[in-house]
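A quick aside before the break. I want you to see a complete sequence-to-structure record at least once, exactly as it would be stored in a machine-readable document. Don't worry about memorizing anything.
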Amino acid sequence: MEVSVLENKVAMGAAAAEKGVKYINDAIAEKGSASIIVATGASQFEMLGKLVKAEVDWSKVTVFHLDEYIGISETHPASFRKYLKERFVELVSPAAFHAIDGEANPEGECARLGAIIGKLEVDVAFVGIGENGHLAFNDPPADFNTEEPFLKVELDMDCRRQQMGEGWFSSLEEVPKMAISMSIRQIMKSKTIICTVPDTRKARAVKNSLEEAVSPLIPASILTKHEDAWIFLDMESASLLDPGSDKHAANRFH
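That is the input. The structure line, written in tokens, reads:
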């Protein structure tokens, strides 16, 4: 794992996208195609803005996304498949986009997507960290053991408050209580993970994820066990980190 702290979220997003693009292009050069996972949410705006402008042959890239609310239509402002289609898919036209259908039968949708991703090697996963330390919608305590690629999960109160706080819903009551999420183990199977986390509101989750012991109570802490994980922060999200910590011995602070 390597941590990079950039001056602001614009620089952070650019650095994260640049690193991810390198791995995508390396995969295409090596085997003629690439498979990636793309995250959503306010934390990914800057990274995605740079990613869609990168020099990539997107016609050779298959795209998955991490999670979707159960019961949300694709036209809902908070729909993650709507988010990705508008901010990424329609701008780059990838070879395939395997969207999670929040209106489908959850168990059937998990099985359908699991069968697809199970046949592929994911080259790059673009992810974030939630205010409660979640990875995708794997809220604490996360299931670190299931081999199922996609899960039906219950969203905890902190997660639901974050979704409202980011402006996706006008009230807490409107935020769904259930979602479909890619599992922790499936995310960790990715060859490379690019994790982009801006803002002061994420600072405590970042510190816990990077400096505390790996635990299902801090789902994103599992990233410290990945062999090729790159964490991109801005000054605000990194504000609580201890630069002198032994756990940051190999990290870069800009």
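Two observations worth writing down. The longest helix spans residues 9-31. The helical segments are 9-31, 45-51, 80-92, 106-117, 157-165, 184-188, 203-211. We'll return to this after the break.
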